[in-house]
């Protein structure tokens, strides 16, 4: 009975670990920061027979240590000018998510780079 229980626990750990690793590779990534300074490029798309508008942004982003990376991402609305964003950038998929943050939440080195390139 103990062997079966240990076997089940080991199987759960292996499957859970593999699932976590897949999630990190697919959706995880590094954190970068940007400031929106201009309107996004408007794009008209169609999905399931419905038309919708997306706004595309291409810009340099910065890690907390100031390391630069060119990124491209979209939003379903035109983002607020002067807004600071925290991006999750996956090495395979590019930007997987973004969130507006306050200026005080942007690391100093990244903020310095953002301000010098504005």
Automatic annotation (TrEMBL):
Domain of life of the native organism: Bacteria
SUPFAM superfamilies on file: BC4932-like
Pfam families hit by this protein: DUF1093
UniProt cross-references to NCBIfam families, sorted A to Z: yxeA_fam
Protein name as catalogued: YxeA family protein
Organism: Lactococcus cremoris subsp. cremoris GE214
